[in-house]
Write a structure and sequence with these properties.
Number of domains of chain B: 3
CATH superfamily of the largest domain in chain B: Mu homology domain, subdomain B
Radius of gyration of chain B: 25 Å
Number of helices of chain A: 38
Helix content of chain A: 55-70%
Strand order of the largest sheet of chain A: 1-5-4-3-2
Pfam families (chain A): Adaptin_N, B2-adapt-app_C
Largest sheet of chain B: 9 strands, mixed
Shape of chain B: globular
Number of strands of chain B: 26
CATH topology of the largest domain in chain B: Immunoglobulin-like
Largest interface: A-B, 83 and 90 residues
Domain Beta-adaptin appendage C-terminal subdomain (chain A): 617-735
Oligomer: heterodimer
Biased composition (Polar residues) (chain A): 550-559
Protein name (chain A): Beta-adaptin-like protein
Radius of gyration of chain A: 41 Å
InterPro entries (chain A): AP_beta, AP_complex_bsu_1_2_4, ARM-like, ARM-type_fold, B-adaptin_app_sub_C, Clathrin/coatomer_adapt-like_N, TBP_dom_sf
Strand content of chain A: 5-15%
């Protein structure tokens, strides 16, 4: 019946609150209130049902309170129950009206049917209206002495409800004492259980205020009570057994024979089909044997089988709860579970929260004897369609590698993942711990196409590896550069920090790009997280010395480039290419009218007087420049010329590897200092020196795209006036490449 | 101790909402649903069954597409609450015959009535259908069981063989037959969920049976019954690891472990492997068991993926039913993830194939092959040609698979655990209630690696 059916009489869609339906219901209820006509109860049932369905979906039907109460004079128990439910729900917001209900509830408490007495008493206690407390005491007192166990169970809970409404009234009537004697004498187990529930809660809440209460709480855990409950444990239903077991787990036995008695008594509870009973029993066992190391171990062994059965027998939610307990035990004593590893293999249909737990357990119990099997199994999960689980599995393999002995084989497997473009993070961690593997790893890392790395942490790890081992990887700077160029797409903070971190290590410093990069990061919101990430990582880092350069380096990079950003605010967000380009137009043309910029100061100082280039330019065929100087110069000088030119088709075909071009250019007295890249993008840094004594250097960055056949050439020169001439030479040299 | 209990539909509507202690705010159902729905943002990760939001513990189970939720502010035992929620669902099912959104909405007043007795002030009182019967007065309003898709393990009998009286399991424990008289009958179902993992070369890497002997009694007068199991059944393995497989062709059934319903008396179990009990009304598990002893897997699965030219590959899936021709498996589904760069798949079924369906789930990059039934002893093959958007990385087996299989086999059990006989203590010579002993095996995780 829920959700409410729209009333036929007022289907107005403009009344979504159902107010018109409610008033309609009120009217109909009033008409039926006094009716004793046959069938009146059936109509009332229908109306009550509608009221309760409104209540369930959250429509306020409290305005029908008095009508509902009027209709409640009935002998129909189904109607009565619906009425009780309604009253219990709305009494608190209508304390005055609830007074109306007291009368019929009190009357029902004296009904001859124990069921009605119980129901009425339960509803009476559930009103939760403070000023009606006085009406509760007498029915409760009678209920606790009632001949029917059903009424007594309800009354015992009723005392607890009364305590929550008015603790004083509860104590004044001496109900706790009555409950205690009832608990120790009642023949019905559920009455005993409810008394225990109530007393526990009352004394727990009171124990902060009064000493007497904490004494009472102690007696609940005293030997007489505990033994009394234990001796009756089979009379209790499963839920009450859980309660008793919970209480027993707090009991401190006086000697070990007592411990064994209790454990022997409860032993068969481990075979209960209800997982809650089994777990409560396990809790008792673990608590009891806490101080007996050897027995405690036996207990672990004893618990395994029932726990594993529970994992398989219930719903996945229940297995999750049981596995969480197992997880706890596994973490405490991984050795004891090392032969049971197969039980923690993931099953196809399990939800990810179960799989994650299992992965953690597999990681924990891996040791010499089972590592191979576990790692093999985990590797199978790596291809899982569920990407987070696949990732977790690889991470688990990494963790095992970090704590394990058979690192050799594991590293091999991890490298396979690398080839499959799976995960990089843990390889980084591995390398931090086992630097001796670096040579195997970098060979693979070098082949990774950075475009395929998507996850921010993986990117960061890749950058770290490239930076750390760049001396062994000739291509490292170029891979890094392509990452930089795609930087705009990057939003996560982790990789940006890695960049600044590796900056001072690379054989080449792409400080230009990096500078822009950190500015970009600075301007975006993620600058702060990036900083914080660094600091966090520092704590974990195994190579603190190097890492600690990170933050300061980051800072300096930013300040170094704050100068250009002063004159052109828009620079903050532009990528590395645009800055040089603004500068190029200047030397090429004669117009020096553009606002003089700080960035090209050096250039202007050098290049203004003699713009027309000398016609002849001789180059030193044996020019030498060490990388550091090149780097410094490249950083200092501005670009004096930048142009694109086409390569000859023969040149492109000859350009299978950078070395070919390098040898060719050497023949034209142009030396290469660094090169790299993968087809179709190659990048070269060349330099050349004038032979005419000025020993001025020309520095060239040349990017060749072999698929488009274009070469992008940037020239920086000590003597900017000669750069045009040099460019012509360079271009002609390049155009002869491949033309034999 | 719990504070509130509610049942939400898949869309998040309250179907039933009961506040026992008034300690948690009214909007908890919305808070809960939003949290569950968007647990990890985009990542398709399920919310765990227990979590905490602003000091409120939310504990939930999913049953028949509905969310059964309890909230509390205190540190309760989660397993107790999860068990309780599951049990509430079962009690409701006992009463309504069928548990689904429709039946729940039709009978919400009855459900409130049940909830009133199951939990008082947040403390569980009883979940026994038997006990509850005397306190609950609403008559269930039946929904048409035939129209609804079968749910739960017992429902599988409806589709399987004609021998089973299909409606019985969806019958309410309190409802009477149209004739007014209750039919005296009892169902004992041996339900086994099996998990098997085959290595790429066809070896069994792991195998496990999680079994339940489930009972549903409609017997009047609660007679005592005796269930006799295999005489040579043994429980627990003395000595070494549970996983040292012993080949036991035709030998004894060895269970690793088991547990029993509280009504079961085990007095003669050690002697003659019989369980004695007075079955309470409603559905319950007499015994749960677990077995890692090697058993003969019902299906052999062979999967092959091979490159067939540039950016193309061929998949061959072969399934052989290794059981008697008198037994028929039904609703078989075979799934296999393919490389993520697969763009097109064309299937080729064996000639004359009936009741088979194939599909390429592009979003999940997965092949699906569904077979209505497989008769014991038969073998079926599927060929599929994959087209890729790029050249493969050269290691196809690492990027595809594993193959997972789902099936249900009525009248078959992997463990060979048997109910030798089911004896009902006789009241009179003419008392002959219907006794149904049924077996079914379901795949829990049936995986073949490439």
């Amino acid at each position: 019946m829920a959700p409410p059916l729209p009333s036929q009489r007022s289907p107005s869609p403009s009344q979504p609150s159902g107010r018109s339906e409610v008033s309609d219901l009120k009217l109909q209820l009033r008409q039926l209130a006094g009716s004793r006509a046959p069938g009146a109860d059936d109509s009332k049932r229908d109306l009550f049902k509608r009221v309760i369905s409104y209540m369930t979906v959250g429509i306020d039907v409290s305005s029908a309170f008095s009508e509902m109460v009027m209709c409640s004079a009935t002998s129909d128990i189904v109607l009565k129950k619906m009425c009780y439910l309604y009253v219990g729900n709305y009494a608190r917001c209508n304390p005055d009206l609830s007074l109306l209900t007291i009368n019929f509830l009190q009357k029902d408490c004296r009904d001859e049917d124990p069921m009605i007495r119980g129901l009425a008493l339960r509803s009476l206690c559930s009103l939760r209206v403070p000023n009606l407390v006085e009406y509760l005491v007498a029915p409760l007192a009678a209920g606790l002495k009632d001949g029917s166990p059903y009424v007594r169970t309800v009354a015992a809970m009723g005392v607890l409800k009364l305590y929550h409404i008015s603790a004083a009234t509860c104590f004044d009537s001496d109900f706790p004492a009555t409950l205690k004697s009832l608990m120790l004498s009642d023949p019905d187990a559920q009455v005993v259980a409810n008394c225990l529930h109530a007393l526990q809660e009352i004394w727990n809440l009171e124990s902060n205020n009064s000493e007497e209460a904490s004494r009472e709480r102690e007696t609940l855990l005293g030997k007489p009570v505990i033994y009394y409950l234990l001796n009756r444990i089979r009379e209790f239903n499963e839920w009450a057994q859980c309660l008793v077991l919970e209480v027993v787990s707090k009991y401190i036995p006086s000697d070990s024979s007592e411990i064994f008695d209790i454990m022997n008594l409860l032993e068969d509870r481990l075979q209960h089909a209800n997982g809650a009973v089994v777990l409560a029993t396990i809790k008792v066992f673990l608590h009891l044997t806490m101080s007996m190391t050897d027995v405690h171990q036996q207990v672990y062994e004893r618990l395994k089988a029932p726990l594993l059965t529970l994992v398989g027998s219930g719903s996945s939610e229940q297995s999750y709860a049981v596995l969480s307990h197992l997880h706890l035990l596994v973490m405490r004593a991984p050795m004891l579970f090392s032969s049971d590893y197969k039980h923690f293999y993931c099953q196809f249909s399990e939800p990810s929260y179960v799989k994650k737990l299992k992965l953690e357990m597999l990681t924990a119990i891996a040791n010499e004897s089972n590592t191979y099997e576990i790692v093999t199994e985990l590797c199978e999960y790596a291809g899982n369609v569920d990407v987070p689980i696949a990732r977790e599995s690889i991470r688990a393999v990494g963790k095992i590698a970090l704590q394990q002995y058979d690192v050799n084989a594991i590293v091999d497997r991890l490298l396979q993942f690398l080839e499959m473009e799976k995960d990089y993070v843990l390889v980084k961690d591995l390398l931090r711990k086992y630097p001796q593997w670096s040579h195997d790893c970098i060979a693979v890392v070098g082949n990774i196409s950075s475009k395929n790395v998507q996850e921010p942490k993986a990117k960061a790890a890749l950058i770290w590896m490239l930076g750390e081992y760049s001396q062994d990887m000739l291509d490292a700077p170029y891979i890094l550069e392509s990452i930089v160029e795609n930087w705009d797409d990057e939003h996560a903070p982790e990789p940006s920090y890695m960049f600044t971190d590796k900056e001072h290590r690379g054989p080449f410093e792409f400080s230009e790009e990096l500078g822009n990069l950190s500015m970009g990061a600075e301007s975006a919101d993620n600058a702060m997280p990036a900083q914080r990430y660094e600091e966090n990582d520092l704590l974990l880092s195994t190579s603190e010395k190097e890492e600690s350069g990170g933050p300061t380096n980051n800072g300096s990079a930013v300040s170094a480039y704050s100068a250009p950003s002063d004159y052109d605010g828009s620079l903050i967000s532009v990528n590395s290419q645009t800055q040089p380009e603004t500068a190029i137009s200047i030397p090429g043309s004669s117009a020096y009218t553009s606002p003089a910029t700080l960035a090209i100061d050096d250039l202007l100082g050098l290049g203004v007087p003699s713009a027309p280039a000398p016609p002849t330019l001789k180059l030193n065929p044996k020019a030498v420049l060490d990388p550091a100087t090149f780097q410094r110069k490249w950083g200092q000088l501005a670009i004096s010329l930048s142009q694109e030119c086409s390569m000859s088709p023969q040149g492109i075909t000859a350009l299978t590897a950078p070395q070919a071009l390098i040898r060719h250019m050497q023949g034209h007295s142009i030396q290469c200092i660094a090169s790299g890249g993968q087809s179709p993008n190659f990048k070269f840094f060349f330099f050349a020196q004038r032979l005419d004594g000025s020993s001025a250097f020309f520095l060239v960055e040349c990017i060749i795209n072999s698929s488009s056949g274009k070469a992008q050439i940037k020239v920086k020169a000590d003597d900017g006036s000669a750069s045009e001439a040099f460019f012509t030479m360079f271009q002609s040299a390049l155009s002869k490449f491949g033309v034999a | 101790m719990i504070s509130q209990f509610f049942v939400l539909s898949q869309r998040g509507d309250n179907i039933v909402f009961r506040d026992y202690r008034g300690e948690v705010q009214k909007g908890s159902a919305e808070i809960f649903f939003r949290k569950v729905k968007f647990w990890k943002g985009d990542e398709a990760e399920e919310a765990p069954p227990v979590f905490n939001v602003d000091g409120v513990n939310y504990i939930h189970v999913k049953v028949a597409g509905l969310l059964f939720v309890a909230t509390t502010r205190v540190n309760v035992s989660p397993s107790l609450v999860l068990e309780l929620l599951q049990r509430i669902a079962r009690v409701i099912k006992d009463y309504l015959g069928v548990l689904n959104e429709d039946s729940l909405r039709k009978n919400f007043v009855l459900v409130y009535e049940l909830l009133d007795e199951v939990i008082d002030f947040g403390y569980p009182q009883t979940t026994s259908t038997e006990v509850l019967k005397s306190y609950v007065f609403n008559e269930p309003i039946m929904v048409d069981a035939a129209r609804i898709p079968p749910l739960g393990p017992a429902a599988m009998f409806m589709q399987g063989t004609k021998r089973m009286p299909g409606t019985a399991v969806t019958k309410s424990v309190v409802a009477n037959e149209p004739g007014g008289r209750k039919r005296d009958e009892i169902f004992v179902d041996v339900i086994e969920k099996i998990s098997v993992t085959f290595s790429s070369s066809g070896y069994i890497l792991t195998s496990e049976v999680d079994g339940t002997i489930q009972m549903k009694s409609y017997l009047s007068g609660n007679p005592e019954i005796r269930v006799a199991l295999n005489e040579d059944l043994s429980i627990g393995r003395s000595g070494a690891s549970v996983y040292d497989y012993r080949s036991s062709a035709g030998g004894a059934v060895i269970l690793d472990d088991c547990n029993f319903h509280e009504s079961v008396h085990l007095d003669s179990f050690d002697m003659d492997r019989t369980l004695t009990l007075i079955p309470p009304d409603g559905e319950f598990a007499v015994m749960n068991y677990r077995m890692t002893q090697e058993f003969k897997p019902p299906f052999r699965v062979n999967a092959l993926i091979e490159e067939a030219g540039p950016s193309k590959a061929e998949v061959i899936l072969k399934v052989r039913a290794d059981f008697s021709p008198s037994v028929t498996a039904n609703t078989i589904a075979v799934q296999m993830p393919v490389p993520t760069y697969t763009t097109r798949v064309s299937f080729e079924l064996e000639p004359g194939a009936v009741g088979q369906m194939t599909d390429f789930k592009e979003g999940m990059k997965r092949l699906e092959w569904c077979l209505k039934k497989i008769v014991g002893g038969s073998e079926h093959t599927l060929r599929a040609k994959l087209t890729f958007s790029q050249e493969s990385h050269g290691n196809l087996t690492r990027e595809a698979g594993p193959v997972n299989m789902n099936f249900t086999i009525p009248m078959y059990n992997a463990s060979r655990l048997q109910v030798r006989y089911l004896q009902i203590a006789k009241k009179s010579k003419t008392y002959q209630p219907y006794r149904w002993v049924r077996y079914v095996t379901q795949a829990n995780s049936y995986v073949a690696r490439l």
